[in-house]
Amino acid sequence: MSFSERDLQALAALLREAARREIMPRFRRLGAGAVRQKAGPLDLVTDADEAAEAMIEAALRRRFPGCLVVGEEAAARAPDLLAGIGDAALSFVVDPVDGTANYAAGLPLFGTMAAAIIEGEVVAAAIHDPVGDDTALALRGEGAWMQTSDGERRPLAVAAPAPVARMTGAASYRYLPEPLRSAVCRNLPRVAATWDYRCGAHEYRLAAAGHCHFLLFNRLMPWDHAPGWLLHREAGGFSAQFDGTPYRPGVTSGGLLCAPDEAGWLALRAALLEMR
User: Fold this and answer.
1) Using CB atoms within 10 A of its CB, is residue 172 exposed (0-12), middle (13-18) or buried (19+)?
2) Which ranges of the chain does DSSP label H, i.e. alpha helix?
3) What CA–CA distance (Å, rounded) separates 51 from 4?
4) 3-class SS at 40?
5) What is the pLDDT of residue 86?
6) Domain of 178: which CATH number?
7) What angle do CA 161, 164, 165 make, to 5 degrees?
8) In whole angstroms, what is the distance from residue 241 CA to residue 269 CA?
9) Disulfide check for 18: which of 26, 52, 155, 215 has CB 3.0–4.6 Å away?
10) How many beta carbons lie within 10 A of that of residue 210, not counting itself?
11) Distance between CA 130 and CA 114 in Å, rounded?
12) Residue 78: which CATH number?
């Protein structure tokens, strides 16, 4: 089975339509009861997440009959869905509103993401910005690009390699286990600057466009990382789990570090993950 650019454009159109119909009309208009906790105060869901995911899932099943769709909200209700990603002929992981905490707070920093996976291999990705109305796209082996609402394209490329002391990037340490969490926080001053947007969609877009050098994550739910991992890779970047093994969408732990190249990745791992 293959996944063509035409298929990718259809996926991008589905995300954009869901954002237009279900996400943006609710932005800064969420009423009482429209925002709820799932696992705790750091894990929110809104009416927009659920409505957009339902719309995207239905559209994907129509466009790609027989596909497996693993949405963030569906997987929260039925965790066994994750087990099917590795064997399905074609599956999709979907994050309808990545950055839900920002969305619920009225901050315009959230995204709608999806990746296509064929027998465990990520083959296509789309990260849509509902506010800016543009989409970052990647097709395995074909590169990555930013596409505006009128179809204009701009190729994406990661930043040029740099010494660790001059690198900037996003470091999400809140899910790191101790003592690694304390070690990473202690080591962050070794780089030039760090931030956490509470939104992997925009952090991956930033890195793929060359506006920062690295990304560091720990919890690896596939809807949060499969789209961005492929986008970063097709923009020329190098990434691996903390132990150096390649990223796989079925793995949800072990951390992920993204850098412009392998040499930079090795230097970052030594600088940020050093235990002392």
Assistant:
1) buried
2) 5-18, 47-63, 72-77, 100-104, 180-187, 200-208, 222-234, 262-272
3) 27
4) strand
5) 87
6) 3.40.190.80
7) 120
8) 10
9) 52
10) 16
11) 14
12) 3.30.540.10
> Residue 151 — left, alpha, or beta (φ > 0 → left; ψ -120 to 50 → alpha)?
left
In order along its 276 residues, the chain shows pLDDT tens digits of 789 999 999 999 999 999 999 999 999 999 889 999 887 777 789 999 999 999 999 999 999 999 999 999 999 888 889 999 988 999 999 999 999 999 999 999 999 999 999 999 999 999 999 999 999 999 999 999 999 999 899 999 999 999 999 999 999 998 899 999 999 999 999 999 999 999 999 999 999 999 999 999 999 999 999 999 999 999 999 999 999 999 999 999 999 999 999 999 999 999 999 887
Residue 267 Cα to chain centre, angstroms = 24
Nearest residue to 25 (alpha-carbon basis) of 57, 42, 56, 47: 47
Number of domains making up the chain: 2
Residue with tokens 């650019």, as numbered in its chain: 5
Provide the 8-state DSSP code for 245. Answer: P
Rg (CA), the chain: 18
Picking from 150, 213, 188, 170, the residue whose alpha carbon sits closest to that of residue 274 is 188
How far apart are alpha carbons 223 and 221 in whole angstroms? Answer: 6
Beta bridge partners of 136: 127, 146
For residues 232 and 265, what is the distance between their CA atoms, to the nearest angstrom? 13
Contacts of 186 (CB under 8 A, 6+ apart): none
- Do 255 and 194 lie in one domain? The reply is yes
For 152-199, the DSSP string reads -EEE--PPPP--GGG-EEEE--TTPPTTHHHHHHHHGGGSSEEE--S-
What are 186's two structure tokens?
């202690």
